[in-house]
């Protein structure tokens, strides 16, 4: 395997394993900043050794073992010879190549949810909680997180550094809270799991359109949370949304790994079991007797798609109304952009284009590639191919996902082809 290919493989492994490493190390050292540093040290060692020795059979086990040894070495150097050190050294055999999978699936899996609650402690601001957890659990770069928040990368970098320092200074416990302590963190925890799922569903950058393992982990955490907080409607709403969205995994990419848009997907291949689970979770949310929140509303929108056997049967008027309700609960230019798409499907592309054109002045959408992408789609439907081609090229220049960039450039080329034929 070439050096460059090995490094790409290591990067992929890191994205899959880093959250488990950091969660497990945080349980040991009780300092999330230190845990991240130890995990990064293990990555550096892997980058040095694996190109020569080859990637081990179980890279997650190798990274965990290396990171744990670093933790013990650090404790020796700083002479922290307390019971924590004794316990870590005694349990070192837990992280051998033979049984690491069992550990990762059990104890460390629960640690991921503890890590979310730790980093979503009210001692941090809402934005700081979400930014830090996306960095640790999703392995997103500061640039990728900044694009999610539609803010400057430097802002996110400073926010994350301050958050880690605050958690360390305040000695925030590594635990699953109960009662009011759980409720006070629930909003941030739900947002983190939601963004974690979204990053897996449509990767911000890289060679792949999706990161399914990230989606699966977010869904697993959501299901666990639903057991912990069974009377919280938005927990069930988020689970419903993730279940229904997950039902489309097999149809979102073709055999070449290229994106397949919603309207072009083979609905007969959608996972009906996941859809039923999602509809059941949505029903549980409604039965709590409270107005639908943002996650339940989005789940209701997804349910409209899931229940339509064909694109033509989709109830776009209902979807438009649900987006209107969503815009009142959580006003956002991105919600407005999605509402414009729904309205264009219900009442025609000219209607949607009018709303999209108004959104072009929104500063928050200045670097948001889906704005020109949606505009290009609406212009195509109106037969304004030259303008549409320009919009698709602009969107392609803005996205950092290679698969999406190719899709957008193909759409621009299709518009150019239609212009040529018309001439």
UniProtKB/TrEMBL annotation:
Q: Name one GO biological process term.
A: DNA-templated transcription initiation
The RNA polymerase sigma-70 region domain covers 21-79
Locate the RNA polymerase sigma factor 70 region 4 type domain: which residues?
115-167
Domain DUF6596, first and last residues per copy: 185-285
* UniProt superkingdom: Bacteria
Which GO molecular function annotations are given, in alphabetical order? DNA binding; sigma factor activity
Q: One short Pfam family name for this protein?
A: Sigma70_r2
Name assigned to this protein: RNA polymerase sigma factor
Q: Which organism is it from?
A: Cohnella herbarum
Q: What is the lineage of its organism?
A: Bacteria, Bacillati, Bacillota, Bacilli, Bacillales
